[in-house]
Amino acid sequence: MRNWYTYAIIALFLMGTQRFLYKVSAEKRCNTAWTTFSFMATVAILSSILFFALKESVTNIQFLLFIALLNSGSFLLATVAHIEALKNIPASIAYPIIRLSAVIVVFFSILFFKDRLSLYQVIGIVLAMVVIVVLTRDFGEEGTSYGKTRRGFFCVSISLLAGAVAIISTKFAAMYTNRMAFIAVSYIASTFFALGLRKRLQTEESEKNPKDALVIGFTMGLINFAGYYSFLKALSTGPLSIIASIAGMHFVIAIILSALIYKEKLTPATTLGIILTISSIILLRL
């Protein structure tokens, strides 16, 4: 088995567990900024310590700063929008649609890295569009208020687009700069961004005490550090379109955990949407 494939599988499971913690944060009505701050700070501290402990070096600091800040901003935006979406729509709806960012990544990989689009990939992209229709129709029948529906899907759309930018920038970082330094700079920037958003994201429904948010964020950070490093290792030698598609399936783990722990109902249409999403991502690998 190729090393990049092994790292991609590890990233799949770890990122799926991390994404489930987004749901935990949303269910506990935590302030999203505090959760994100704790999450980002944990990864920033771990990566900084390891960078200096391993005595690694950076050759092109300008490129590192540019790609790290681009990744930081897009990933933070995707994370905040993701958690806010889960406060308004079920995880079984939000996760599959957000993970369709893989479609954008595949298109970019084809245009920039000159990947060839196979018939299977064309079918996969068509299925991806069908998923959005199926899940949206299913959600509309659940009786959720129009305001929450609109707000939820707006956050999902933002998370999808920002997530695609974060994945693409990670590929360039994996290829052209020091991985540990990239993680450190990116997450240090995200930590300050999240700290600046803490009051803006404090709603009447959010818990005033940040304790739960900080604990969830810390746990999220530990898991993310291992998962994101595995993702970078895979991207450093493997193809972007395939690795992004493999890692993109992590939402399945989050949905299963949400169904088991929070008893979220999987309707026939939602189940069909999940199956079509998995099929789409698999086809995008071929």
Task: Please tag this protein with its features.
0% strand; 12 helices; mainly alpha; globular
Mean pLDDT: 82
Report low-confidence residues grouped into runs of 5 or more.
Answer: none
Largest sheet composition: none
Distance between the termini: 17 Å
Total DSSP helices: 12
The H-and-E topology, N to C, reads as HHHHHHHHHHHH
The structure class reads: mainly alpha
Helix content: over 70%
- Provide the β-strand percentage band: under 5%
Give the overall shape, derived from the CA principal axes.
Answer: globular
Number of strands: 0
Rg over alpha carbons: 18 Å
How many structural domains can be distinguished in the coordinates?
Answer: 1
Task: Write up what this structure looks like.
By secondary structure, the protein is mainly alpha-helical. The chain is 80% helix and 0% strand. It has one domain (3-285). Helix 1 packs antiparallel against helix 9, helix 2 packs antiparallel against helix 8 (179-196) and helix 2 (32-53) packs across helix 9. The chain starts with a helix and ends with a helix. The model has no long low-confidence stretch (mean pLDDT 82).
